[in-house]
Amino acid sequence: MVGINKHRSWILIAALAMVLALLLLSTSAVAQEEGQEIDEYYFTVSEEYNVDINDVGDAAVTDQVTYDPTWFAEVGYVFEEYPNLLSRRFRADTNIGELENFDVQVDAGASSITVTFDAPGLVYNLGDEWVLFGYPGYEVSSVGDDQVVLTGAWLVTGEYTLFEELGWEDTVTIDLPEGATGARYDEGDGGVYYQLAYTGETASAGFLEDNKTIMLIVFGVLMGLSLLLFIMVVTRKEKEPPAQPAVAQAAPPTVPPAATQATPPSAPATAAQPPPSSAPPKEQASPPEEQAAAPTFCKKCGKPTIKEGASFCKNCGTPFD
Amino acid sequence: MSKPLKTTLSIILIIVFLGSTVGFILTISASGGDEPVEATLQVTLYPTEEIFTCAYKSYGDDQTDLYAAKTIIKNTGDTAVEDFRISYKIDGYCDWTSTEIYPQIVPGQTVRDYCFPNFDSGEMQEISTKTPAELTMKYEYDGIDQPVEDTEKIYLLGKNDFVFTSLQEEDIFTFTDATDNYPILAAFVTPNEELTKSTANELAGGLETGMNDEDVYQAFLRCFDYLRAAGVKYIQEPATYWTERFAQYVQYPHETISRKSGTCLDLAICVAALMEAVGIKSYVVLIPGHAIPMIELPNSGEWYGIESTFIDQEYAFSHFPDWVTPEVTASECVTIAAPSINDNMAEGTIILVDLESEWAKGVIPSW
Fold it and tell me: What local confidence, expressed as pLDDT, does residue B290 receive?
């Protein structure tokens, strides 16, 4: 039994090895066949499509298409012989105002053509973000604030392949404007989105209309107030200025004004009166009416006169001058 | 109050009163009547050279390459324009389109806007020859009190007119260039039109046209025989002078069936429409000076074309006696078509109008 089992296991191993070998052989054969098919029917073209976007959504495009040297050596002369071939669609009426400065350079040595043009307004401003449409079916290679790189591969026929179906490997490099943030690729609509805030002025109907309500209130209040004050000023009667109490002016020069102002109104007028020995200020002596009202004193005993116009001191009897 | 002070105060108050009164009046009258601050827009309207009436529905689809006009808007001022709104109308054929809104156009920015009109079906059916119309564009934005309008003349082709190419003559190098507008031909193929549908159902009755290769091929031959039995004849292309271009008057399938005649292109379109009406994938094959209908078998994927002008048995035998037997059978016509297709395919002078693909892209049959 053991021998039989051993024998069986060897058979199994040999069978498995054969199956694996057959699988490997068949896989490589298929791969080879497919490779031959692709090589036989499709030349591969590589495209470097660079879109340089400025801060107002204009794009400067550089499109470099590099062909298989064999293919280009055989038919590439057509591009040079018919210079309109690559530019005609860009020059068409439908492109008026959309494309500028279109140029084609053919480099036979490098088997390549380079197309350059400017596309004003290629990127749309949605208010809160900008979007560049036109890249459905691509895969994202990298996304950063300053650059988005997309890749794609498909079969193409048209002017660029001289209407022959060729394999096309495309790398799209989109250089975003300085200050762009939040770049992303939307597979749904094939658009590349980014944010770029506008910090300049915004057109409007003017300050007055923008602030209409508040300006109406301000001007209305000003009108009313000025009118009211004007009426008050015009109708106000002229009055004599109230006489300043002598005591207030009798304040000594050494007393600071704050002390004078701090004097309570109820304080007796005499409180600020200078001592009799103090020399009266010059200005105090000047008004004649105030001088006449001032009390007089006896030269001998110093007592004040009791009665105005008295000819002698009632206290000591000394005659007055 | 002294007199000089009183006078000074009075003068100041009068000035304040007058100033505030002027300010009040200006504020009231500033209801959008004044010009926007520093906003300067350059708005230019570019109408397309011609509208393909046969594909009028496609113009309403913003995913197609067809549009009636475009406007280039450039902000040449110093300030951003907010809430820019634009719409279009074509007098008698399309009312104002839905408003396209651009929230902000910053200084130096360019905006490209396209007019995708939804044409009035009834009016479009009446257009038999090239017809002028007025296209009006209007726009407005924050800061202006009323919309600005601009009007340009456009031309609508007759509903049967097909202009083969819109490229300039000096830009036409290849057969493909000369037939550059070929996708629009898909709009003439109308499988859902009543007469076309009923005819297709009648001729393909009893066949599994959706999945059986043999039945599909039989339906193709039956279609040929049906049209011959109906008395359909081949006619030469009439000129379409009014288009002023390399163009052709193209019949819709129901017109070919009811008129019992058609050009090679009319017959190819008619056969393709009848086949599509019963679910058979079809093509209109264009080769220099000729058109051939072709089907694709659902399982094998094989293509079969048929020389549809030989539906007219008398014409075929009288003009090509060396090619055909007096019976000029449908099978013979399939055999005759094959080398025409293959030779032109080898030469690259062929266009396969993939109808289903073009419909999917938005070239919608109009009737």
Answer: 93
- Asked if the Cβ–Cβ distance from B20 to A127 is below 8 Å, we say no
Residue B59 is which amino acid? Y
Q: Which of A78, A84, A209 to mutate to test the interface with B (most CBs of B within 10 A)?
A: A209
Cβ-Cβ contacts under 8 Å for B126 (sequence gap 6 or more):
none
CA dihedral A254, A256, A262, A268 (to 10 degrees): 20
Q: Kindly report the average pLDDT of chain B as a whole number.
A: 91
Each residue's pLDDT tens digit, A31-67: 333 333 444 556 889 999 999 999 999 999 999 999 9
pLDDT for B156-191, tens place per residue? Answer: 999 999 999 988 888 888 888 889 999 999 999 999
**Gap between the Cα atoms of B253 and A216, Å rounded:** 70
Q: Which uninterrupted H or E stretch holds A31?
A: helix A2-41
B317 closest CA partner among B305, B331, B329, B334: B329
- pLDDT value for A1: 32
Chain position carrying tokens 């060897």: A10
Is the CB of A129 inside 8 Å of chain B's CB atoms? no
Q: Which residues of B touch A123 (CB under 8 A)?
A: none
CB-based contact B165:B179 (threshold 8 Å):
yes
Give chain B positions within 8 Å (CB) of A200.
78-80, 106-107
Number of Cβ atoms within 10 Å of the Cβ of B218: 17
Contact by Cβ (8 Å): B139, B102: no
Q: Please tell me the total count of domains within chain A.
A: 1
**What does the DSSP 8-state code read for residue B57?**
G
Q: Tell me the three state secondary structure of residue A134.
A: coil
CATH architecture of the domain B41-156 equals Sandwich (2.60)
Is position A151 within any domain?
yes
What is the model's pTM? Answer: 0.69
Cα distance between residue B238 and residue B236, in whole Å = 6
**A12: distance to nearest CA of chain B, Å?**
40
**Residue A223 in domain:** no
Summarize pLDDT for B42-90 with one digit per residue, the tens: 999 999 989 999 999 999 988 888 999 999 999 999 899 999 999 999 9
Q: Which amino acid is at B295?
A: I
Question: Which DSSP string corresponds to A231-243?
Answer: HHHHHPPP-PPPP
Q: Return averaged pLDDT per consecutive 10 residues of chain A, 321 residues in all.
A: 38 45 39 40 86 96 95 90 82 80 91 94 94 94 95 89 88 96 95 89 62 83 88 74 48 42 40 41 42 63 70 74 64
State how far the Cα of A224 lies from the Cα of A129, in Å rounded to an integer. Answer: 48
Nearest to B283 by CA among B273, B298, B292, B294: B294
Q: Considering the domain delimited by B162-361, tell me its CATH architecture.
A: Roll (3.10)
Domain residue spans of chain B: 41-156, 162-361
Range of the structural domain that residue A152 is part of: 44-195
Residue B122 — very low, low, confident or very high, per pLDDT cuts 50/70/90?
Answer: very high
At A315, phi and psi to the nearest 5? -85, -50
Question: Which residue of chain A has the CA closest to B68?
Answer: A94
Asked whether residue A303 is domain-assigned, the answer is: no
| Residue B235, token pair as written in the block | 């006619």
CA B303 to each of CA B91, B182, B276, B291, B348: distance values in angstroms, whole numbers, following the listed order: 46, 20, 14, 15, 17
Instruction: Look up tokens 């007592």; give the residue.
Output: A303
CB B306 within 8 Å of CB B333:
yes
Q: Please list the alpha-helical segments (H only) found in chain B.
A: 3-29, 121-125, 175-178, 194-203, 213-229, 253-259, 264-277, 313-319, 330-347, 355-361
